[in-house]
Amino acid sequence: MNGTQQRPPAPQDRYPRRLRLEHPTQHGILLDHTRDYRPLTNWCRSALPSHGARLAKVARLLIENSHQHSRSGLPGGTVRVVLDQSRHLLPHLFVTDQGPLEANTIDYPRLNARDPRSGLAVVEKLSVYWDFSWDWDGHRIKSTTMQVVFDLTADR
Asked: Which among 2, 16, 107, 152 has most CB atoms closer than 10 A?
């Protein structure tokens, strides 16, 4: 290769990329900073066929939020999405971004009770539980994870 040619992306550099997880009840996908959500929708429908539309709606809301408010939306950023179905009727969705845009802020998800159409209001309506956690490196938030629990026995 001469100095002007770039190597093609290695398989681990291509997005979206399905994740290989330890447990057979877990499915995951890694998305980049682009806002093409078709692969996410397809993944949701294959991961949870009978409830794929609800899963896709919630996952997309959380990923759009990650793209807008975290380093995941910057070039080179990623969002990790994992669906854990070890509790058959209560699958858990985990969406992990790369932490807030500003290193000196502690930014966390908040439900705006005055806006019933906000992303978290919709998530709350379509799930039975949601919460968040973050990883702290001693100086800043490295990543934020949203956990959403669905009840597959209820129509929402």
From this structure: 16
Tokens representing residue 133 in the block: 């956690």
Q: What is the chain's length? A: 156
Q: What is the pLDDT of residues 14-53, one digit of tens each?
A: 899 999 999 999 999 999 999 999 999 999 999 999 999 9
* Full set of structural domains in the chain with CATH: 19-149 (3.30.565.10)
Distances (CA, A) of 2 to 7, 8, 9, 116: 10, 14, 17, 56
For residue 88, what are its two tokens? 């058959």
User: Under a CB-based contact definition with an 8 Å cutoff, are residues 40 and 57 in contact?
Assistant: no
How many Å apart are CA 5 and CA 156, to the nearest integer? 52
